[in-house]
Amino acid sequence: LCAVRYTGVAGAAFRQEQHRRTLPPGQEDTVTMTVTYSEYQPHVGDQDALKLTVAGAVQETGQVLAKELLVRLHTPELTLTLLGPAVVGQEVPIQVVFQNPLPKALTGATLRMEGAGISCPKPVSL
């Protein structure tokens, strides 16, 4: 498991596991891997993804199988709600909701709204 930058460049692997299985004919097996935020957080940036590479070898034949999975990390959305009627030339109150999905507090955040008719957007510290 490694982080992949938005440019496609992969970082060093930060987690590796090895499993051996014996499978009877026609059977399948599942290996589950849980990756916590605290484990991958030091390795990823704002627009990064996680790349999981799995390789398997059949001991009897020497055949090698491989598969990659790219997992995009989604940023949470802002929810915007008008709290009154939008009338040209008048202020309109807007509610902005952001839910922090991380297991730690976010600090130093600012909110800046831009759009048609907003002549001088002022950042709001949160």
From TrEMBL:
GO terms for molecular function: protein-glutamine gamma-glutamyltransferase activity. The keyword Acyltransferase applies. InterPro entries: Ig-like_fold, Transglutaminase, Transglutaminase_C, Transglutaminase_C_sf. Residues 3-67 form the Transglutaminase C-terminal domain. Keywords: Acyltransferase, Transferase. The keyword Transferase applies. It comes from the Eukaryota. Pfam families: Transglut_C. It is an enzyme of class 2 (transferase). Its EC number is 2.3.2.13. PANTHER family: PROTEIN-GLUTAMINE GAMMA-GLUTAMYLTRANSFERASE, PROTEIN-GLUTAMINE GAMMA-GLUTAMYLTRANSFERASE K. This is protein-glutamine gamma-glutamyltransferase. It comes from Thryothorus ludovicianus. The gene is Tgm1.
